[in-house]
Specification:
Helix content: 55-70%
Structural class: mainly alpha
Number of domains: 1
CATH class: Mainly Alpha
CATH superfamily: Phosphatidic acid phosphatase type 2/haloperoxidase
Distance between the termini: 44 Å
CATH topology: Vanadium-containing Chloroperoxidase, domain 1
Number of strands: 0
Strand content: under 5%
Oligomer: single chain
Largest sheet: none
Radius of gyration: 17 Å
Shape: globular
Order of helices and strands: HHHHHHHHHHHHH
Length: 247
């Protein structure tokens, strides 16, 4: 590990421990273009309500989606603007920004697309392209349900992106159109990793580690606060647990 990598690891450790604790660790989905349809549906409904959410779910036969009160109780509020916790988050992000490398930014950039391939196949990922294609065919409802829930949660909390609130934060990955809390990449990668772990149990740990890296890279890239990541992981775990309970 070179000096910059060591510094970055330390910065992440300080950032994580000072703002939240991990219990474990876009906004559209590329599933037959369905992700774009979900985002279009939400963006065309500025006052998207829980009833709209549930009506859409019924239309797409997505039963058992989380209700607004469940999402709010699960995730809780994000750190208030100007609070000490938010200040610590921004300080940590700025520290990471100063020491991140171009190769790290490139890696984070390549994870911008929320697909199984970009998450878990690229960069000698835990699964092969054929394994991803096999899983993709079985995950359609999971992907649609997760994407819809995440986008609904983002609308509920409506947290601005860190670069929209703090001019010193300079992202090195594409800017996003959706809001910040919770992180869709963190939620999706966690959810997918746990689902894939059922299919490929010998790769479970590697999949979860990869999901953690994807989530961390959203902070490194400057498009999420650490608390967005923590909330995304919670949501990803909750989505998985609900699926298990329905079996």
């Amino acid at each position: 590990m070179n000096l910059k990598s060591k510094k970055l690891t330390i910065a992440f450790a300080l950032l994580i421990t000072s703002t939240f604790s991990f219990s474990t660790y876009s906004q559209t989905m590329e599933v037959e273009n369905f992700g774009e349809n979900i985002e279009e549906f939400l963006e065309n409904n500025a006052h998207f309500s829980e009833n709209d959410f549930q009506d859409f779910a019924k239309k797409e036969s997505l039963f058992g989606l989380m209700k607004e009160i469940e999402i709010r109780n699960l995730l809780g509020p994000f750190p208030a603007s100007g609070s000490n916790q938010e200040k610590l988050e921004v300080l940590g992000m700025f520290t990471i920004q100063k020491i991140r490398t171009s190769s790290q930014c490139q890696r984070a950039h390549e994870e911008d697309e929320t697909s199984l391939e970009s998450f878990f196949v690229a960069h000698n990922g835990p699964i092969t392209l054929d394994e991803a294609k096999n899983a993709k065919g079985k995950f359609f409802k999971h992907m649609l349900k997760a994407g819809t829930t995440i986008l609904f949660a983002k609308k509920l909390f409506n947290r601005p992106r860190p670069y929209d609130s703090h001019s010193k934060i300079k992202p090195c990955v594409p800017l996003e159109r959706t809001t910040s809390y919770p992180s869709g990449h963190a939620a999706l990668s966690r959810y997918y990793a746990r689902l894939l772990g059922e299919m490929y149990p010998d790769k479970k740990d590697a999949l979860l580690n990869r999901a953690q890296e994807i989530a961390n890279n959203r902070v490194l890239g400057g498009v999420h606060y650490p608390s967005d990541i923590a909330a995304g992981i919670k949501l990803g775990d909750a989505l998985y647990d609900r699926e298990q309970a329905r079996k």
